[in-house]
Design a protein that fits this description.
Layout lengths: L7 H11 L1 H21 L4 E9 L9 H6 L5 H7 L7 H8 L2 H11 L3 E5 L5 H4 E6 L6 E9 L2 E12 L8 E12 L9 E5 L8 E6 L2 H10 L1 E4 L7 E8 L2 H59 L6 H36 L17 H4 L2 H21 L7 H45 L5 H34 L6 E5 L12 H29 L5 H4 L1
Antiparallel strand pairs: 1-10, 1-11, 2-8, 3-7, 4-5, 4-8, 5-6, 9-10
Helix pairs in contact: 1-2, 1-15, 2-15, 6-8, 6-9, 9-14, 10-13, 10-14, 12-13
């Protein structure tokens, strides 16, 4: 009985048996390459720190609103504005700023790259690394000449031609003398001290990179993200070939960011506390005078209890007067803000003072103002980015500066129009108050006067309490007792690298090798059948 033609699976099995050398050799070769990659590639470690931003940057929080009650009115509105939302996206941009990364880079001496030995912690070779901007860039070699002594030679970049695409550096060989363990190396602009463990090494090679290149590389190694969009938590991750450097860099980035934020808030609320202190002194005098006048008047007229009609009439009058005073105070505050903004002289790289208008809530509620402030912020960000690569006389910088000036003029026009509108409201309310006073002439003069005086004392008392709490809040924030940001998880020294991952690399290499072996064997078998190759079994 004759068997039929072999099936595809049978033909594949026969091909694999005939091409066994390729089937076994391909996975072996890929795994050997993977092992070579694992042992030759310098491992990269990652460490991260998490920061939480508080919604209210003061420990008093809602104490102001609860102290003034839950009712309506101007003081309740002011209390509702006491809390400050967290601009998390802005804080993320500040964390990734070039200036903050530069501070950390200089403090940790990240311009230095240890080349030999390659898989050793930098702390085991160098006890201290401090590199100034004036330090020469280049490659340096330390050869051990005696116990604890090394000869120091270097290949220093003497000149660089930025207009040449390649070979743009002119280097010189220099002999820098002898260095001892525990003493600074004789390299100008640096303080690099060898650690005690370095005495056992025969050769140490390292490189000092240019400041800009080192800063660009460090920024690429930093990643900032928000694990959850509905939570005000930001994570900072740093990747480095040294696990200790990765952890120290992440911690230092968070620490320096919070220090800068604390300093900015301290200055801002320090000025607020000083202003409120002077206003409280004045308000306290007014309150004492009003209370004394109320006491004298009540004793002179023998008033025990006011009539309900007088109560309603005075409350309505007080409401009108209070609304008028709030609008007038808002107008005066906006005028003072515009005068302060107009008096500030701004440098090329400094923030526009007109961005302070964002802290004026009623003005910011208008669509035109919000759009102008958004455009102003975008232009200033573009200008700041260009200043890293251009001079102040560059055409792009001048065009952006002119556009910023135009936006500032439009903002001032919008704000002035808003001020004029507030003035018209004050005039209208003044007319209403005069008319209402005429209607109140029918109310007994004594009771009306008494209620007016008592209402004045109550308003001054509430205002005094509000300003007193606001002053304490500002003083606490200025003293650095509340920064609005806290470290949730500090950085830890990683144990396993993120690159390479030995097990994953070997598994992938094995899968690729098997695929190459099986696919290659099948392809060769198919090619042999096409050209008429006779299988060895048949030929035998």
């Amino acid at each position: 009985m004759e068997s039929g033609p072999p099936t595809s699976a049978l033909r594949l099995a026969q091909a694999l048996r005939r091409r066994w050398l390729l089937v076994l050799g391909a996975p072996t070769a890929t795994m050997l390459l993977a092992l070579l990659f694992i042992f030759l590639v310098r491992p990269v470690f990652e460490s991260g720190v998490s920061i939480r931003f508080l919604e209210d940057q003061s420990p008093l929080g809602g104490a102001v609103g609860s102290a003034l009650g839950q009712g309506g009115g101007g003081l309740s509105l002011l209390a509702s504005l006491a809390g400050r939302a967290v601009p998390t996206q802005t804080e993320v941009a500040v964390m990734g700023s070039r200036s903050l990364a530069g501070v950390v880079m200089h403090e940790l001496g990240l311009r230095l790259e240890l080349r030999t030995p390659s898989r050793v912690r930098r702390g085991a070779v160098f006890q201290e690394v401090t590199i100034s901007d004036e330090a020469a860039e280049g490659r340096f070699t330390l050869e051990r000449v005696a116990e604890g002594q090394f000869s120091v030679t270097g290949r220093i970049v003497e000149d660089r031609n930025v207009f040449r695409p390649v070979l743009n550096e002119r280097k010189i060989e220099v002999d820098l003398g002898v260095a001892r363990v525990g003493e600074p190396l004789p390299i100008f602009g640096t303080r690099i001290v060898l650690a005690a463990e370095a005495a056992t090494l025969s050769r140490i090679r390292f490189r000092i990179h240019p400041t800009q290149d080192a800063l660009d590389d460090f920024q690429k190694r930093i990643s900032i993200d928000r694990p959850r969009r509905d939570a005000d938590v930001v994570s900072i991750h740093v990747r480095w070939s040294d696990p200790e450097v990765a952890a120290h860099a992440a911690d230092l980035l968070a620490l320096r960011f919070m220090e800068r934020r604390e300093e900015r808030l301290s200055q801002q609320f320090g000025r607020t506390a000083a202003f409120l202190s002077s206003e409280l002194d004045s308000l306290q005098g007014e309150l004492v005078i009003a209370e004394e006048a109320l006491r004298v008047y009540r004793e002179a007229e023998g008033i025990v209890e006011s009539e309900a009609q007088a109560t309603v009439a005075v409350e309505q009058l007080a409401a009108l007067q209070g609304r008028r005073d709030l609008i007038f105070a808002e107008r005066q505050a906006l005028l003072m803000l515009l005068d302060d903004v107009g008096a500030v002289e701004v440098g090329v790289g400094e923030e526009s003072p007109y961005r302070q208008l964002v802290y004026f809530p009623t003005l910011l509620a208008t669509t035109a103002t919000a759009e102008l402030l958004r455009l102003l912020g975008e232009l200033e960000n573009q200008k700041a980015a260009l200043l890293d690569r251009r001079t102040t006389d560059a055409r792009e910088i001048r065009v952006l500066s002119q556009r910023v000036t135009e936006l500032e003029t439009q903002l001032r026009t919008v704000a002035q129009t808003f001020v004029d509108g507030l003035g018209n409201q004050v005039e209208s309310l003044d007319g209403l108050i005069v008319d209402f006073l005429g209607e109140l002439e029918r109310v007994p003069r004594v009771e009306l006067e008494y209620l007016r005086r008592r209402r004045q004392v109550e308003v001054l008392t509430e205002l005094y309490m509000f300003m007193q709490l606001a002053q304490k809040e500002a003083e606490i924030t200025a003293a650095g007792e509340s920064g609005g940001a806290r470290v949730v998880d500090a950085a830890e020294v990683p144990i396993e690298p993120v690159v390479p991952q030995p097990l994953l690399t070997l598994i992938i290499s094995l899968i690729v090798g098997v695929g190459i072996g099986v696919g290659g064997a099948a392809a060769l078998e198919h090619a042999g059948s096409v050209v008429g190759e006779v299988p060895p079994e048949i030929a035998a």
